[in-house]
Structures are given as C-alpha cells and as structure tokens.
User: Fold this.
Amino acid sequence: MAVALKTQEIVLNMGPQHPSTHGVFRMVLTLEGETIVDLKPVYGYLHRGIEKLSEGRSYLQAVPITDRLDYMCALTNEFAYAVAVEKLADIKPPERAEYIRVILAEFTRILNHMMAIGFLFNDLGAYFTPVLYAFRAREHILDLFEWVSGSRMMPNYIRPGGVAGDLPEGFIPKAKKLVDHLWKFADELDTFLSENEIFLQRARGVGVLPPDVAIAYGVTGPVLRASGVKYDVRRAEPYSIYDRFDFEIPTLPNGDVYDRYMLRLLEWKQSLRILEQALEQIPDGPVSEKVPRRLRPPKGEVYGRIEAPKGELGFYLVSDGSDKPYRFKIRPTSFVNLGVLREITVGHKVADVVIILGSIDITMGEVDR
Amino acid sequence: MDLENFLPFLGEIVARWLKGFLPVWLVDVIMMVVVGLLIILLMVVVVMALTLLERKILGRLQDRLGPNRVGPYGLIQPIADVLKLLVKEDIIPEKADKLLHFLAPVIIVVPAFMVWAVIPFGKKLVAADLNIAVLYVIALGSVTSIAILMAGWGSGNKYALLGGFRAVAQLFSYEVPMALAILSVVMAAGSMSLQKIVEAQSPLPFVLLQPVAFLIYFICGVAETNRSPFDLPEAESEIIAGYHIEYSGVKWAMFFLAEYINTFAISAMVVTLFLGGWKGPVLPSYIWFFIKVAIMVYVFFWFRATFPRLRIDQLLNFSWKFLVPLAMANLLVTGLVVKLDLGYWGKASAYWAGNILAGGLALYLLGRFTPKKALA
Amino acid sequence: MFGRGLLKGLYTTVKHGVMTYFKGYKHPFLKRYFTEGPAPRLEPEGVGLFTLQYPEEKYAMFPRFRGALMHLRDPETGQPRCTACGACALACPHGVIEVIAEGKGKERKLVDYRYNLGRCVFCRLCVESCPYGAIEMSHEYELATYENKMVLHLEDLLKIGDRSGVTEQGWAWK
Assistant:
C-alpha cells in the first residue's frame, strides 16, 4: 500500500550574511529536502554607484575608483580602464610601461586564481588550510605590488598614458625569484588537492555548464574556457603587447566545478610563462606619456576591454569633449558570469550551491558596483 | 606501592576510613558519586585542553602559530573562552520550541559523560567494568542523534532543521557499520567487556589483526562525532552551524563540550578496541592510555585541517554501499577464523590475510568507481 | 586505488606543520615574537611560519607606502611649503582636502589645511598634483583614534611630516 506523503518545499534565504556567499550576496533557495528546486539571486547590497561616481570626476580621478570594482585584482581593473581611455584619447603608452602593465596584470591573475582555488576549498569545508597556503603566496605578490605602487590592494598605479612611476630598483630579480616559487606552489597545490578523492567526488559532474549555454549567457574567462570554448581576449583581440608572448589558452571539456578548478591551475602556469618572458624582455625607457592632468579627449565613444582574471572586463566610455566622461559604463565580469548561476544549480543539493558559486568566482564589489 | 596502583590504593584507604563510621551501602554510594565527579572534572579539563590543542595543531598545520596571547603559549586561552561563554547572554529565539530548545543541550551532554563509566583508563582504573560495555557504548552513542534532532527542530530555524535532518541520517547510517566493526573485535576477543578486550590484545593489538575493522570503526567514529570530513550537520560553509546555530552562551558550550568529549571518547574507544588500550611497557598503564588517545586525537585534528567535506548523498552511499558490505565481509572472515583451530599465530596470520584481501579489494573497487582526475 | 589522494593531502599538511618549527619567524621559549624593531619581509618559501605577531612585530614599510597625508617644511625657513594654491583640493577625487586661505593674489596665505582622514582613500593624486612639493604621503598607518578626530589640521599634518623626517616630495619615486 503506497501512501503519498505530503511534502512541503522550504524557502531558504541564503545570505546576505552567510560565510560562503563571497560577500553580501543573497540567494533565495527553494528546497525539496536537500535538493534545490529554484534559485533566485538577489544582489545590490554593495551598490556604491561607481559608474555615476566616475561620471562626476575627471578621467584621472576615476582610476582609484576602478580599484574598488573587483578589489581582489585592482590592477587589471586599472589596466582595462587605461586601455579604454587610451583608445578614446588616442594615446600610445611607452614600451616599458606596457611591459610593467603586463607583468603586474599576470601577477594579479595568479593572485586571483590562487585565491579562487583557496576559497573554493573553504566552501568545500577544508577548514581554511588551502586558503591560508594561498594567502601565504599572495602575501609575496602583494609585497611586490606594495613595493611598486605603495599600496597592497588599491594601487592606483596604472594610469591612462602609462604607469605612475618606474619600477623600484631590484624589482626584476625579486620578481623572477617569486615566479620560481609560484611554479613550486602550483605543483604543491596540485599534489595537495587535485587527486583528493573527496574533492573529486564533490566536484566532478557538479554544476555542469554546457558551452552553448555559456555562450548564450555571455560567460567569459575561466568559467567559459572550462566548458571547452577557446576564447580569451588576449588572443581574440590582442591588446597591449600580448601578441608578443608565447602562451597557450588552456581549455577543458567538462565544464564542471572540477574543471573550473583545474583550469585556474593551468592558466596560472601559463601566466607564469608570460611572466618569465616579460621579465626577460623588459626594455629601459620612459614609463609614461605626457598626459594632461585634466584630460579632454575628443568627442566620441569607445569600448576598451581586456582579459581580467575572471573574464572579459570592459569599459564603455562616451566623451562629450569635456574633462569628465559623459557616460561611464562597466562590463563587469563577475556580474555577467553570475547570471548563469541558476541555470547550473537547480537540481543539485544545498551543499553544491556554495561550491558552484565558489567555482564561478565572483567578487561582490564588481557585481554590485 | 608503585605509580600503577596509586589511585586504586588511595580509593581503598578513603573507603576504609569512611567505613569506620558509616554504613557500608552509604560508603558505596559516596564512592560512586566521587568517582563520577572525578570523571566529569577530568573530562571538563580534557575538553579545555582539547580546544586549545586543536587550535594550536590546526594553526601549525596552516603555517601559523595558533592562540598565543593569553598566558604563556596561550595556555590560559580556554579559561578565557569559558569565562566568556559563561557571561554571554542566553538567547532563545521567539519562534523556538522552548522545551526542546532547552532540553537538547542537556540531553546531548549527559551520554557524552556516561560513556566514560566503562572505558578503562588503566589496568585498575575503570569506573564500572560492565560485561556488556560495548553494547552500552553503542547504545549511548545513538542518544546523541535524538538530542541533535531536538536542537534542530526546537530552534525554529531552517538551517538548524537541515542540520538536524542531516545529523539523524548520518548518525543512523554510520551506527550500522560501526556496530559490525566492533562485533568482529568482540568475536575475536570473545568478550564484550572492554577490560577483557584489552587483555585479549597481547601480544598483538587488534589493529594488526583487524586492520579493516579498525579503518571502518575509525571512519564511523569520525562520522559519529560530526567531525571533518563528515561534519555535515554543522557545515560551516553551507548551513553555517547547523543544529546549534541558535544557541549561545552556556547552552552552546554544552554542545561544544559534548562534541569534544565524544571526540575524546571515540579516540579512547579506538585505543581500547584496537590499539591495545592501556597496554605498554615501562610507564604506568594510564599514561600509556593517554598517550595513545592523544595520538588518535591528533589524527582527528589532522583530518580536519586537510579534507574537504562530503555531500550528504555521497556520505550515505559511502556508508551503505561501501562500509556496511566491507564490515560484513570482515565479519565473515572473523567468524571463519574464530572457528578454525589454528593456534594464536595461525589465527593472527589468517586474520591478517583475510583483512588485507577484503580491504584491498574493497579499496580497489571503490577507486574504480570514483571520478578521475582530468586528462589535461 | 582509493585513498592515494587523501594520503597525499595528509602528507602536505603535516609537512607544513612540522616545518613551522624550523622555518620562518622563530619564536623562542615563552616569547611570542622575535624581531625587535621592524621585521624583514619573508623571502618566498613554501614552508614555515609566515604570520606576524602584529603589535610587537611590524614590517618596515616600503618607501612608496601611502599612509596619511603630511605637510613638508621648507628646510631654510622652517615654514610650511604650502602656498594655498588649492591644486590638491581640486585633484582629490573625494573632496577630502579643504584649503583655507586669507588674502588675494600675492598676499594669499595659508591659514588652515583640513584633511578629512575618514574619507581619504590614499590614492596620492593630491601629492602628484602639488606644484610646490609641499605635501607627501607618510608611512603612518595606525590612524585609529579614541576621540572623534577625523579631520586633521595643518599643525597635525606638519607634526606627521616632522616625525617622518622626509624633506623632499616624491623621494621614493625617483
């Protein structure tokens, strides 16, 4: 005799205060037992109006504001903004500045990827160990940033027209030493985590993002490449001097949480390859073009984009000829990538939500802006 | 008189002195109460030491120092923590089931203490040498799940409810292989009394004769105490603190106390059942007991620092589809060997061969069905 | 075989745990910290302690470090170099700086310089805009106070400048 038990769905508000929502992000989950029936993301808790703020400021004054977009990798935000402004005002930064930018951007990429891996494991419940090992290596990278720019996380260093100042003496050997260490650290994380059976069970086949869905949602960055789509702005539309370096765009076929983890590790190694070449080739010379402090670009509009660690980061600027941008629009990486969350979460368990979110790797500063 | 007999001797002196002016039954009651209080006191001290030790060990494994501010080496830290917990406001949620919310911490802490009545600390140091001690321990272990469900339901919080559900599913599933693993030890030792089991482990401890049972029991023990990688009921990153999310102050301390006592008790049970209990050369027996337990506790902390957490369905699959059949196979091997007339060393090698065969095959099969690393 | 990855993980963590006793900052008997004076930055190594016992151990700041703003004095006269031109106030993206001056044209004189610490983002744009080399970022980063003292005035900024011993703007950026 079969008796149909009446069950009830639970609505669970995960966040905005929750240890693994990576900031003030809220998910309204509808649960059937432990299984997720529906997910509604709610964001905006960290909205600071960065776009509007920047429209009220000069082109130079907006640089420290872009730092606060994705606070994990401030230097690539500045890089993207500088690329956009240079396109708008038709400035060509000097050679050495380009190399400095690439070096710092690739260090930022490694930093972001190691933190993403660390926090993914925090979400998985490995009590802070991988994240602390990552913090340790990150500390060395941040030391370099502080040495160069004077600030660990909000450098305000890459400016339209070049960089704020030349590299300090002794930077190149120190950076080379750090690159050697980061190779070792990548291998250590690989042995520590990649083969862990619990991790494999948790991450394989969870949150699978098919390539067509990824493209339809406009997902970019490691999340897209883990789904097997070979798209990277550094190769698709080379900006700065990325066409000079020999590196590969790694892709993985499955598009699950494990592949997103593994792809970050592979990309990290490619970044190290770029760094090795850049640190070898860097020329002497000036580091900044003469750019007026109150830059007045000609009328027009421009979209400048780079491959930020989390994906394509673009700035759409409209100039009306004055010293302030008429429109300052950001194409935030995390926000666009987060759109796919519901698509790949429904049907999984509560425990999977946090690791899928962790594997997408968002920063709320960029999502809410 | 040597160190070995010091504590029993002391007890006897006090009892004799009391018998001078009190009736015999009253002396017995007093002695029982004293022993009970002593055990409770010991456990509270042990828990305080464990909290510090855990944070210290985790710190070291994560390249940092751990607590080092309060007192030399941070040794006073647990006292500071206890003081803070005692003066903290006790919050009862408005929508909570008041009675269950109040009772849950009480119910969880009582069996945690009661287990210690039968665990032999030393050759002569055991509060009650029950002849069904093993059954007693298993029975007390299952009371915990009721308390956790009460806490989860009574808190009136969805996270707590999820934690309670998870706890019940997990504890029930892991009790089965745990009992089966203990059963093979009981069959090999021929007794359910923990003292007899310890004595049966000479010259070889059961970990060498029954490695598979040891492994199963240890894994189940980790799951029973809700510790990483089986800490789903209180998963920090998913359901925040699970069933004790709505508790604060002293009530929260009760959960904490119970968890750490259980950790210590499971370590003690592993030591008693598999590692030869208090047996050891030179040093007094209770010192050996605590050394072995400390090593097991270290392994618990080590696991916590290393492993990510399992998911609830994987956890249950692991229990029912892997541990239970393996424990059954092990039981079969043990049953066969017990009945064979081989002499001690013959039996030992037969156990060993059977265990290695069963365990190796099981691990191989499990490896076949685990997802593989990417072919990058 | 199942368990190989788990054992590898256990090996990694215990290696780190053991190496903390040998590498990194040493912590001798009954002493929480080792370095007297500023601590050196650690060389990149995979193992060993890496945490700093903060109030006792402190890193030496890099020359370019950007802490609170400070005013510099003219070494000859001992007066502040600031001419109250207001370029810094214009350059600041957040309106942190308020220059209060008296008089017009050549007579213009600095009366007070209000620096709102609570709103400053330490971007150094004000320093870069200063044509007279009158301000610079100091290395002071412990800026919390017990009183509600968010706004620093000219004398506070001069005091910071005197403490720092810096005489020239942009000395670290050469």
